[in-house]
Amino acid sequence: MANRSEEAEYENDSRRNHQDKKKEGVLDLVLKRPLRWLRMLIEELHWSFFFGVIIVYGVSQGLGKGLSKVSTQYYFKDEQKIQPSQAQIYVGLIQIPWIIKPLWGLLTDVVPVLGYRRRPYFILAGFLAMISMMVLWLHTNLHLALALSCLVAGSAGVAIADVTIDACVTQCSISHPTLAADMQSLCGLCSSIGSLVGFSLSGVLVHLVGSKGVYGLLGVTAGLLVVVGMVLKESPSRSLGRKHVNDKFLDAGSAIWKTFQYGEVWRPCLFMLLSAAVSLHIHEGMFYWYTDSKDGPSFSKEAVGSIMSFGAIGSLVGILLYQNFLKNFPFRNVVFWALSLSVLSGFLDLILVLRINLKLGLPDYFFIVVDEFVSHMISRIKWLPLLVLSSKLCPAGVY
Predict the structure, then answer these.
(1) Which residues cross the membrane (predicted)?
(2) Other C-beta atoms within 10 Å of 219: how many?
(3) pLDDT exceeds cutoff 60 at 225
(4) Which of 138, 171, 182, 192 sits most deeply, having the most CB atoms within 10 A of its CB?
(5) How much is the pTM?
(6) Non-local CB neighbours of 125 within 8 Å, separated by 6+ positions
(7) Nearest 5°: phi and psi at 113?
(8) Residue 212: inside a domain, yes or no?
(9) Which of 123-137, 159-173, 237-251 shows the lowest mean pLDDT across its residues?
(10) Would 335 be classed as within a structural domain?
(11) Is the pLDDT of residue 239 over 80?
């Protein structure tokens, strides 16, 4: 009897130890390991850089994107009374500052302001975005041309801040090559968490304060870019005359041209260009269809925001998968399989519009949520290795 009781007690102790180890393993994966990772990045890099990444990617791009995307769609539909085809064109115009990002990048590298290459551009970006959002918020019955100009200016402010923090990330990737993938994961993580919060709140905020009220909130978030420009650690450089600036532009152009002559550089760049160029989307048309009471599901503002928040969750899952499991896999394999899955996920919109999902017994909301989650997860996995490669291939002096 004594032996049996001892064996039972031993088994209970073993079971408790196993459960404790399992709990510790989950706690380590969910909390301790991410905290150690963040602490390591802060120790290796300056805290102001870490703060800049959080504000630019997490607040300006992530939260701002979540709020502005939904509010702009409703602004065009309800305030300006324009059709989906027009809205698609105007959204394309708003993206022009992002298309010319290399120009902003050259300016930050070649034209220092008062001896600084990064800080003044953060301040400029903050004021540009803040003023344009305030105009949209305060003015009623704004003419479409002026409203579109403000939206383009706000987009330019976010794009300038983005390319400036990208330059900081690239500099750190060159000085700390072993942390290049970690920095891209940090940027993507901040962006995805910010997008998740933004999309989750966007529908509710548009319902409560209207699309114009959301622009007022975006003006406040844009002001944080000014704070980044004030606190960022940057060593001042010697101010250049106009002749020296022209020489620096020529030197930068020459360095870029020489870099593009290598197959290891121009082939990935061509792939990224073609991948973005042929990835056609109908987001604006799908939004009008989502909210159409005749042919579409007629989703409410809150439902539209929640649907897009699942896209942010998918993006976050993609980052976690890449950081924990895929970043050490061969580059070609990750991109090939992500691109293949991306092609397949493109058919989900067709299934939805043809109402095949209803024939299969899948509700519209459930199917759209799955579509958003899967497509954003695959897109993030596809682009992360390309961003890591880009940061490593960037020529010295051109970030």
Answers:
(1) 45-64, 121-138, 144-165, 186-208, 214-232, 265-283, 303-322, 334-356
(2) 20
(3) yes
(4) 192
(5) 0.74
(6) 156, 157, 158, 159, 160, 161, 164, 222, 225, 229
(7) -115, 115
(8) yes
(9) 237-251
(10) yes
(11) no
Predicted confidence at residue 149, as pLDDT, reads 94
Asked if residue 6 belongs to a domain, the reply is no
Mean per-residue pLDDT, 250-270: 77
Tell me the per-residue pLDDT of 284-318, one tens digit each, with 9 for 90 and over. Answer: 777 778 777 677 788 888 888 888 888 888 888 88
Residue-range definition of the domain harbouring residue 85:
43-393
13 pLDDT higher than 70: no
CATH of the domain at 210: 1.20.1250.20
Is the pLDDT at 78 greater than 60? The verdict is yes
- Residue 184 falls inside a structural domain: yes
- How many structural domains does the chain have? 1
pLDDT in tens, 44-63: 888 888 899 999 999 998 89
